[in-house]
């Protein structure tokens, strides 16, 4: 960034020297009750040629030689303040190229303080000094120089870019209200404001905790740059922050339909929004697509979440399919137990028995879950006609407090069945 700036500044300075030599008309400015009447001047032919030669040396990287020549020119300037201002500006450029930034700014300041350059050159140099202080993170000095420039520069020279610089300086100094005022002014001045300006405005609203204005700004940014996924996600989150869950969901859902979402966190967030809105079918659909495409890690835990959402949506076959995948990836029996619940509800006894066998075989179940597993396993065996196995499982279930009562009732029922068979 520094080298690019210097290259531009160097070209501008060479053109400036030529303009001064030809006697550019002097402009007058009147703002903030300050009047400036520059005396101006012109360089003699010899000095002009020497400066050109010096800049050729600078272009070839001969900074030390160029600076020594400029020092001699400055001595020769004597009381010629116009020439001294030109030379100080050139010395500043050389020092900047040598990365002697403090020295460079000292010479730039000297050129401004001499106050002898025509308005066009003088105000450009004042503005450049403010920019350089900002680049050096010397924000208080940048602000002071910039305020002085705003106060004296002609109104037609005060561009939107100057307000952006002011906003950046204020923001860096954590004076966010002033930064907001400046960036809003910059945006208002342009029919096609730059994206970075809106980003700065957005950051200031965040810093001020203005959540409603964060959302309003992001609405503009989404409209201006609809392909920027980040703005859609931020807009949704900003709606959520101001308790507008419906708009948060609508925004993310539209971004999804546009094919913008490609991160796990984004799809999980959208799925959660659907679930919180009472739309488990869409929540499951989003999550399953993400897991299937491996945008979301295809772990047992995530497949279990998919299964749970399908179950909430009463899509039992989809839920079972997801639980089966989740169970294959799980080292514990909890997932297979959940699958067993659904299969028992569907009275798919043989499949339920396999799921429950897997749950008990893998282990890792809490006592409550083990009791329920034995209870349901007894039910499957009973319905498959395996009465001895059913009784054995219910006796196992009765050893666990949460399932004891139900197990005892089933064993009583089994006794009644057996008694009826004996009559």
Task: List key phrases describing it.
423 residues, mainly alpha, Serine Threonine Protein Phosphatase 5, Tetratricopeptide repeat, two-stranded antiparallel sheet, 22 helices, 2 strands, 1% strand
CATH superfamily of one domain: Tetratricopeptide repeat domain
How would you state the average pLDDT, rounded? 88
Secondary-structure element string = HEEHHHHHHHHHHHHHHHHHHHHH
Distance between the termini: 98 Å
Low-confidence stretches: 1-31
Helix content: over 70%
Number of strands: 2
What name does CATH use for the topology of one domain?
Serine Threonine Protein Phosphatase 5, Tetratricopeptide repeat
What value does the Rg take, in angstroms? Answer: 38 Å
Protein described:
The protein is built from 22 helices and 2 strands. By secondary structure, the protein is mainly alpha-helical. Among the domains are: 1-146, Alpha Horseshoe (Serine Threonine Protein Phosphatase 5, Tetratricopeptide repeat), CATH 1.25.40; 348-423, Tetratricopeptide repeat domain (Serine Threonine Protein Phosphatase 5, Tetratricopeptide repeat, Alpha Horseshoe). Strand 1 (29-31) and strand 2 (34-36) form a beta hairpin. Helix 8 packs antiparallel against helix 9. The termini are far apart. Residues 1-31 have low confidence and may be disordered.
């Amino acid at each position: 960034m520094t080298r690019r700036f210097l290259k531009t500044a160097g070209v501008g300075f060479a053109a400036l020297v030529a303009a001064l030599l030809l006697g550019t008309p002097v402009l007058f400015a009147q703002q903030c009750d300050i009047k400036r009447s520059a005396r101006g001047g012109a360089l003699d032919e010899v000095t002009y040629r020497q400066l050109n030669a010096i800049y050729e040396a600078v272009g070839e990287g001969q900074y030390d030689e160029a600076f020594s020549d400029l020092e001699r020119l400055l001595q020769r300037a004597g009381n010629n303040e116009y020439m001294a201002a030109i030379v100080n500006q050139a010395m500043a450029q050389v020092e900047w190229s040598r990365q002697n930034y403090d020295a460079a700014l000292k010479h730039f300041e000297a050129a401004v303080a001499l106050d002898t350059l025509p308005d066009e050159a003088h105000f450009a140099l004042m503005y450049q000094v403010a920019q350089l202080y900002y680049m050096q993170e010397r924000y208080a000095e940048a602000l002071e120089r910039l305020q002085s420039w705003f106060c004296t520069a002609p109104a037609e020279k005060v561009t939107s870019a100057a307000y952006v610089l002011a906003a950046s300086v204020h923001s860096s100094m954590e004076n966010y209200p002033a930064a907001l005022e400046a960036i809003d002014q910059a945006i208002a001045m342009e029919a096609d404001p730059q994206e970075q300006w809106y980003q700065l405005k957005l950051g200031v609203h965040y810093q001020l905790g203005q959540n409603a204005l964060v959302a309003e700004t992001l609405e503009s940014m989404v409209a201006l740059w609809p392909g920027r996924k980040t703005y859609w996600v931020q807009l949704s989150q900003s709606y959520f922050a101001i308790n507008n869950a419906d708009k948060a969901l609508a925004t993310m859902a539209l971004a999804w339909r546009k094919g913008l979402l490609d991160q796990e966190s984004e799809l999980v967030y959208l799925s959660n929004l659907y679930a919180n809105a009472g739309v488990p079918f869409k929540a499951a659909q989003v999550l399953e697509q993400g897991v299937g495409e491996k945008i979301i890690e295809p772990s047992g835990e995530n497949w279990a979440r998919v299964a749970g959402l399908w179950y909430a949506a009463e899509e039992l076959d989809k839920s079972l399919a997801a639980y089966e995948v989740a169970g294959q990836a799980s080292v514990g029996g909890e997932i297979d137990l959940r699958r067993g619940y659904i299969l028992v509800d569907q009275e798919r006894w043989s499949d339920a028995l396999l799921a429950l066998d897997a749950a008990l075989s893998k282990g890792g179940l809490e006592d409550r879950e083990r009791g329920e597993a034995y209870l349901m396993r007894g039910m499957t065996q009973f319905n498959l006609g395996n009465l001895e196995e059913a009784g054995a499982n219910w006796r196992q279930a009765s050893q666990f407090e949460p399932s004891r009562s139900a197990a005892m009732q089933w064993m009583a029922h089994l006794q009644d069945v057996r008694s009826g068979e004996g009559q």
